Amino acid sequence: MRSAGDTAGMTAVHAFGGRDLARTGRSWPGLDVDLVRWRAAEGTTGVTERADHLLFVTLSGSAGRTIATTDDGRYDGSDHPGAVTFVPARHRRRSYYGGGLTEYVALRLCPHEVASVLGSEPGRLEFRGFTHRPDPVVHALSAALRDELRSGGATGRLYGDSIATTLSVHLAHRYSNLVRPDRGRAQPLTGPALRRLLDYIDAHLGDDLRIRTLAEVARVSPRHISRAFVAGTGLPPHRYVTERRLERAARLLRAPDGPPIGEIAGHVGLSSQSHLTTAFRRRFGVTPLTYRREAAR
Questions:
Q1: Alpha carbon distance 155, 295 (integer Å)
Q2: pTM of the model
Q3: 65 neighbors 101 (Cβ within 8 angstroms)
Q4: Which of 20, 83, 207, 282 could form a cystine bridge with 58, CB 3.0-4.6 A?
């Protein structure tokens, strides 16, 4: 059972029975993620009310019959893979579980970061919570974060920024009081704006890039940068940056007087040699050391 203290003038509560069999977590600015294997006995209960926006996404297993009370009323049904629960900041959810074993992802979003992405004041955003609904977008993003945690987290801040931005816009467009904007085809970044942004990325590959910074360079809003970037390049920003980092790493590995592999990771913006090895093997099929030896021959 866990509980948090006073946060921003409220008593934050997060108390659940059951037992965590495994828990892996990671934090990015404005986004915290936990991947949890959780066992609940019959009659397990929980209550949560926090200062951040909270999402639970069931990936596998079942906690049996689930009874929960949230903004959208009382839910009485089964827990199941694909079920998404959203508890907005300062909203309360109570729950009862019939017992079972699940793997789930818990996502916590900072309300101020969400409001900033949307160009709004936190107090003007009103979200509606729900429990155990299907949401393919949230489920897909959660599965991607699960894979990121299992791989050891080889990506940088830009990956977390991209996920947090996408989640913020999606939640606001579907579950808030904001007027839903036109969702037609995104206008791609082209010409000088695209060239300016790609040049900036190449010049700052070793930095901890952020979505907000890329939006400022391209002179578009943070809420539109990801869609505009995909429309202009065919890749999300974090994927493009990762590809460029690995291409630069390969070039340094091929250089006869290139730096040690551990230093190359820092040069291209990856957090450690192990992260470089994981991402490099996934991209090129061999480790950096093997790639360097083959290039030398």
A1: 25
A2: 0.69
A3: no
A4: 83
Nearest residue to 223 via CA among 182, 192, 252, 195: 182
| Residue tagged 């904007």 (tokens) | 181
Q: How high is the mean pLDDT of the chain?
A: 84
- Amino acid 95 reads S
Round to whole Å and give the CA distance between 81 and 83.
Answer: 6
Q: Are 222 and 117 in contact (CB under 8 A)?
A: yes
Residue 284 tokens, joined: 């090129």
Q: Cα separation of 292 and 129, whole Å?
A: 52
Is residue 211 within 8 A of residue 240, CB to CB? The reply is: no
Alpha-carbon gap, residue 212 to 209, rounded angstroms: 9
**For the segment 59-112, what is each residue's pLDDT rounded down to a tens digit?**
998 888 899 998 778 888 888 888 899 999 999 999 999 999 999 999 999 999
